[in-house]
Specification:
This protein is of the alpha+beta class. Helices cover about 20% and strands about 35% of the residues. A hairpin with a 4-residue loop joins strand 4 and strand 5.
Length: about 180
Amino acid sequence: MKHEIFKKRSPIDQKRIEFIETVVTRLARRANTSKKFLITPYPISNAVFGEDVQGTILRYMFPCGGIITKGLIRFGKKPSSGIGVEVRISDDSHTELKGFVVTSKNLLVEPDMEVHSGDRLEVAIKPSGAEKVTEVWISFLWVPNVKDVAAKSFLMDEIEKDMIEEFGPALIEEGTE
């Protein structure tokens, strides 16, 4: 049964004004609270091992649009000469190609390549000279377009409760301003 705080048609007295001020103050405090959340991009990766690895080492087709933000290429040993790496995005009507030369064991790249639904990613390596690659690891981060990401709404109280249960009260206190 609903509990009435004030009777209908009762005069506005000091008690009612104080109650309204308390509610407004609490709502204003919540309105100024902002929280930051990280949305993890999707990893796309592969590892290839063999006597003489070359050519295409990774293939992937994108179900929706987005952007490839970062990539990491790691070889089993440092190349004695440069190894060419080609990153190709294609569909039936166009192709976008970015190339890199790797002269160290690891290379972090930021291709910032936009992709659309149905685009295909192909990554190939081309060792130069007599260089033989026996191990290569590759990984990219792909961030889908916002319109294709499922969004959920939560009350701030629910989020804070879940975070306190997971990480403890100190995390919430650090994030408040």
